[in-house]
Every structure is written in C-alpha cells, then in structure tokens.
Amino acid sequence: MADLVDENLAQAGLGLLQADVGMTTYDGVVPDGAAVPYLLVYTTVKWPAGEAGAANAINGQAVTAVVEWTCHGVGETAAAARAMQMRARAALLNQRPTVAGRSCGLIQQDEVLAPVRDETTGRLLMDAVSIYSMVSAL
Predict the structure, then answer these.
(1) Which stretches does DSSP call E strand in 11-64?
(2) Spatial separation of the C-alpha atoms in residues 65 and 86, rounded to whole Å
(3) Which sequence spans correspond to the domains of the chain?
(4) What is the percent of the chain with per-residue pLDDT over 90, rounded to a whole number?
(5) 118 versus 49: which is more confidently predicted?
(6) Extended beta strands in 34-124, E state
(7) CA nearest 77: which of 130, 21, 128, 26?
(8) CATH T-level fold of 5-28+37-107+120-137
(9) Which of 128, 105, 131 is nearest to 116 (CA)?
(10) What dihedral angle (degrees, nearest 10) is formed by the CA atoms of 110, 4, 7, 134?
(11) pLDDT by residue (tens digit) across 11-61?
C-alpha cells in the first residue's frame, strides 16, 4: 500500500496554484475545448540518493524528496503566456507548503523559458514554461 507522500507533496504546490481563483490550472491534462489562458502543470517527485542537499536515514533509506512543478503558461499571445508565468511565480516562489509529517523548504524557481509558438491544435497558442522545485525531508 502506498503511503501517499508523493501525492501529498505534489498537491502542496498544486494547491498553491489553484488558490489563485482567477487562474485556470490543470494537473497534467487539458480538457478538450479548454479556454485560454491556462496553466498546465506536470509534477514529479524524486527521492535522490547522494545528491547535494539529500539526506538519508541512519539505516540508509532515502528520506529526502525533491518535488518539481513544470508549469506551462498557455495563452493566445506571448504576453498572455508570460502573464500566466507571472501568476505561477506569484503563487509558488518563496512559499513553504505544509505537508503532514514532512519538513518542507522554500519553493524556488529553477528555470524559465521564453514563450514558444504552438500551432499543433489548429490555432496559435504560446507556451511559456517555468520550473519550480522544493526539497522536503522527514
């Protein structure tokens, strides 16, 4: 049986993003016909061994997790995509989420990419990517 730690860590950042009621945030998939602008978020949880900042229990078990939220700000113009990036930054950067049983660090911004044209849907969309991360330990 899974302990749900990964999901709780993922939801910590998603909850901060979803608290901005003026921003539509999708977790991993955008429904057909979704109106723009929106924020599409892909979340990963890693349990690194021997990485800088990673701690292990005395028995060698991994106890440090690194959560990444890859945020795609999508809009019909570059300015709209950047606006979604700014809203994601305002919601995540320097926040310290609360996750039961875990000690969470501040969320940091790791990378920001300029908006890129995407016409694969048959209409022009601009996609601006920002990546945020947080370290969490027992």
Answers:
(1) 25-27, 38-46
(2) 26
(3) 5-28+37-107+120-137
(4) 82
(5) 118
(6) 38-46, 65-75, 103-104, 108-112, 116-118
(7) 128
(8) STM4215-like (3.30.2000)
(9) 128
(10) -20
(11) 999 999 999 999 999 999 999 999 999 999 999 999 987 655 556 666 667
DSSP string, 113-128: ---EEE-TTSS-EEEE
Cβ–Cβ < 8 Å for 98, 83: no
Report residue 106 as tokens: 């501040």
Q: How far apart are CA 84 and CA 35, in angstroms?
A: 13
Nearest to 136 by CA among 52, 58, 47, 57: 47
49-73 confidence digits (pLDDT tens):
765 555 666 666 778 999 999 999 9
Q: Are 84 and 121 in contact (CB under 8 A)?
A: no
